[in-house]
Write a structure and sequence with these properties.
313 residues, alpha/beta, 9 strands, 47% helix, two-stranded parallel sheet
């Protein structure tokens, strides 16, 4: 058999089994949604797990994904989702059921003999231990999930981003920028190196495209710079063409504002703990791991604000 034919057979095989992407129906800035697009663009079949049938699920079908409805904590649902998949991306939004979802998915993945399980964790975990935790219940669940996955014997790749640009610097910042030309956040003078979820999705796509060299690795991902909010406010001013000030708001009042905006208590505690850790300098971290994985520089704050300028007007 000639080499071309062999290589063709191997390539074909690589694209035969779908890759499972959980959390695929997130918003446009979410990892699962972007990952689905990137994997399809690389020629992979994608099975996208969604919680409900809606227009977001339909949009995934239009992209070319196979859409499966199911809950990460449901046994039968995860069998339907995982069966026939060799590679899995596991990511879930902040939730009190996070650990149960991780272990349920991992148990079913192990049963089906998957060859790669990419787990979306968080960089805070790298500073936690059996005797060190944070005030965020979600951080504790991330830490426990990483423990369970390491005990599972699964071929795990762990991805730990710092803070997402789409969170503190868009969703949580936009109302203050629109209403009072201020980045009103309780982050003190702490430095942080936020990263775009789109960049993280790009890194995960590179891992899932050829997972073998990555099995067992932990990848800490940051944006291109670590700076305080006064610096980032100057970037907003420059891009938006009007003065944007950083207003360091008291944490209790900010947390209460999240409750008023109907954020679940589990999420409020998580975001509040992240704000406190930022003040303490815990997100003042820098790695060049994203460039190593993707060959591209991470999105900087200037380009991010420019991309979303309509939401700040």
């Amino acid at each position: 058999m000639n080499a071309t034919k062999v290589s063709h057979m191997m390539t074909k095989h690589k694209h035969d089994d779908p890759i499972l992407v959980t959390g695929a129906a997130g918003a446009v800035g979410d990892i699962g949604r972007n990952l689905t697009e990137f994997l399809l663009a690389r020629g992979h079949k994608v099975r996208a797990l969604v919680r409900r049938e809606d227009e977001r699920a339909e949009a995934l079908r239009r992209l070319g994904a196979e859409v499966v409805k199911g809950d990460l904590t449901d046994l039968a649902g995860m069998h339907r989702a995982i069966e026939g998949c060799k590679r899995i991306y596991f990511g879930m939004s902040t939730s009190a059921a996070y650990l149960e979802a991780t272990v349920n998915t991992a148990a079913v993945a192990r049963h089906h003999g998957v060859e790669a399980f990419v787990n979306m964790s968080q960089m805070t975990v790298s500073q936690m231990s059996i005797s060190e935790t944070t005030d965020s219940p979600q951080h504790k669940l991330h830490w426990l999930s990483e423990q369970a996955l390491s005990w599972s014997g699964l071929p795990v790749v762990t991805v730990r981003p710092t803070v997402f640009l789409e969170g503190f610097f868009l969703q949580l910042a936009a109302p203050g920028v629109r209403a009072s030309d201020a980045l009103a956040l309780p982050l003190g003078s702490g430095k942080t190196s936020p990263i775009s979820a789109v960049d993280v999705a790009r890194a995960v796509a590179a891992i899932l495209d050829d997972p073998t060299p990555h099995i067992g690795q932990i990848y800490n991902l940051t944006g291109p710079e670590s700076a305080d909010l006064y610096h980032y406010a100057r970037v907003y001013s420059e891009v938006l063409g009007r003065p944007i000030a950083y207003r360091d708001v008291p944490l209790p009042a900010w947390s209460e504002g999240l409750r008023q905006a109907k954020y679940p208590e589990h999420v409020v505690r998580h975001l509040s703990a992240m704000a406190e850790l930022t003040k303490q300098g815990r997100y003042d971290r820098m790695t060049d791991t994203l460039r190593k994985l993707t060959g591209e520089a991470p999105t900087n704050m200037h380009d991010f604000v420019k991309l979303h300028d309509a939401e700040f007007k």
